[in-house]
Amino acid sequence: MVINHIVGNLIQSVEEIRKDDKFSNLEILAITDRPDFASKYSKYVDASQVIYCNFQDEADIANRLKPYMDNIVGVICRGDRHIQYLRKIAQFLPKDCPVASVDALTRSTNKKLMRESFLEHFPEITPKAVQVKDILPESLDMVEKTINYPLIVKPANLFSSLLIQICQNRQELSDALEKVFSQIQDLYKQRDIHEQPEVIVEEFMEGDFYSIDAYVMDRNSFYFCPPVAYVPAQKIGIDDFFLYKRFIPTELSNFSVEQANQTVQKALTAVGLSHSAAHVELVLTAEGWKIIEIGPRLGRFRNMMYGLAYSINHSLNDVKIHLGIEPDIPTTLIQSCSAYSIYPTKEGILKEVTGLNELSTYDEIKQLKIYKNAGDECVFAKHGGSAIVEFVVASKDLKKFNEVTDFIERKVHPVID
To answer: Do 298 and 280 form a contact (C-beta atoms < 8 A)?
Structure first.
């Protein structure tokens, strides 16, 4: 069963699984609240493979699922926004269906509950954090008594760096909270998030940023993909909160990777996650590894990046673990790989992205997606904005790879009026 969204690599993964005689009759059944689902995804499913329901009505979910209960053997959910629907239906799936519990899915998608779980079980892996409900002086006092500057303001149950802001003093904290509280309701509606908005303030952690995607079978079976290194916006001098660059390989030692994996395992154990992929962001501080956040999903760009760099079929592994099959994780590096997200350096109207035409001619560019064109308005991620363009570069020739990435970092920039 697929929740509300289908991507091409999922279809390819199911076709690969069907080569196993045990799963030769495996089919996709989609459940959705989107009336246009069958037409939108007609190249992947026909109308007979789609269940329509109201995700906000538990009785309707149970009723719609009832005719299929004997045939559901696994459930897949791709994308942050759709996990809220997986939480709605998980309680109604067959008892033997490998799926994370509703509680674990809730704790791994709500940063307030996530931090509370870490603090209860493994306090050494988490920064200090508090929930804030208003911008009254008493609330600011409470934050300052608990957390030292710099600190971070962020929604507890939103994604993609939206509305996240770093604050260096009380005035910046007050301004950031005022802006978040003024925008958060509208942004949740725009993003179709059916959650009660919550805001937390947490300690800013100094260090180098990484992520690790993992697979959890039962609560004692963890599998770790190689780490991916990050270059956040602040590292390139942009006052915003997004990831400019993700890259493989990292320069971490084997010992550091092992320590990182242990920290990831602690985080996933703390929230009780099982039968799920997990995307975990963490930072190597002077005190050791700390968890930024986790998510019960595949990381962005990871299917392509892991495939290009290590020949890991991330999508296929995701399907496997939801059918009770162990994942396959090659660790020999095949080629270097980076993924870039180009955001505005200031807010305004996009004039052009320099170097983009030349960049598109390189064979090393494996994917290029343009989200904004000349004349479009550009807004910082911390104010609810999105990327202008994103692309993935990879090469077995390290010299050529470095030439292309150097060109990107010197020449590919947005020009904003």
So the answer is: no
Local structure of 215: helix, strand or coil? strand
What is the maximum alpha-carbon separation in the chain?
Answer: 65
Query: What 3-state class would DSSP assign to 295?
Result: strand
Question: Residue 330, preceding bond cis, omega within 30 degrees?
Answer: no
Considering only CA atoms, give the Rg of the chain. Answer: 22
- Residue 161's pLDDT band, with cuts at 50, 70 and 90, is low
CA distance 77 to 277: 10
Tokens found for residue 321? 């673990």
Asked if 314 contacts 137 with a C-beta cutoff of 8 angstroms, the reply is no
Distance CA 112, CA 196 (A): 12
Q: pLDDT tens across 339-355, in order?
A: 999 999 999 999 999 99
Q: Which amino acid is present at 250?
A: T
Q: How far apart are CA 232 and CA 212, in angstroms?
A: 16
CA of 50: how far to CAs of 29, 36, 47, 54, in Å?
Answer: 6, 11, 6, 13
Backbone angles phi, psi at 378, to 5 degrees: -120, 130
3-class state of residue 138 by DSSP: helix
Exposure on the CB side of residue 402, measured as CA atoms within 13 A: 4
Residue the block writes with tokens 């994996």: 261
Structure token digits, residue 353: 């992205």
Residue 122 and residue 267 in contact, taking contact as beta carbons nearer than 8 Å: yes
Give Cα separations from 122 to 127, 227, 289 (angstroms).
11, 21, 12
pLDDT tens string 11-25: 999 999 999 999 999
d(CA 417, CA 414): 10
**pTM listed for this prediction:** 0.92
In 3D space, the residue among 97, 25, 32, 101 whose CA is nearest the CA of residue 64 turns out to be: 32
Indicate the SS3 state at residue 149: coil
CB 310 within 8 A of CB 226: yes
Task: Give the full edge-to-edge strand order of the sheet including 413-416.
Answer: 377-378, 348-354, 413-416
Decide if 244 contacts 339 (C-beta within 8 A).
Answer: no
13 is written with which tokens?
């993964």
What is the distance between the alpha carbons of residues 28 and 83, in angstroms, rounded to a whole number?
18
Q: Which residue has the tokens 């390819």?
A: 12
Q: CA torsion, points 142, 145, 148, 153, in degrees to nearest 10? A: -10
CA angle 150, 211, 236 (to 5 degrees): 50
β-sheet bridge partners, residue 238: none
